[in-house]
Amino acid sequence: MLTVTNAEGVQLQAKLFRGFGDPARLNILQALRTGPMTVTEIVTATCMSQSNTSNHLRCLRECGLVAAEQQGKFALYRLSDDRVGDLLALGESLLADVARGVYECTRYNLPQDVRPGLK
Fold this sequence. Notes:
This protein has helices at residues 7-21, 23-32, 39-46, 50-62, 82-104; strands spanning 66-71, 74-79. The protein has a single domain (12-113), classed as Orthogonal Bundle (Arc Repressor Mutant, subunit A), CATH 1.10.10. The radius of gyration is 16 Å and the shape is globular. It has a two-stranded antiparallel sheet with strand order 1-2. The protein contains five helices and two strands; from the N terminus they run ααααββα. The protein is mostly helical and 119 residues long.
């Protein structure tokens, strides 16, 4: 088990959370919480284009958050680990308690080099 206690571990954890931080990827992950889906089903569930969905699925597969299994001529995508779904559920639970602060937060919307005192 990886323990995040040093700068390198923190950077790796931040990289993991980038997979959850993009709205399109998060939309796909949320859709896959209901169970395995084909690209066409994910496109329908997320209202994203097929090419955009495929690009984000590739990213999610490469970082290990999504797995795919060939079923005839289709690939069936699923969350790679039950803990991915657990983390999404935990995020929803936390958001229910801190939604106002997150909504009003302006710091996350600023480009990195514009944030006062943060470089």
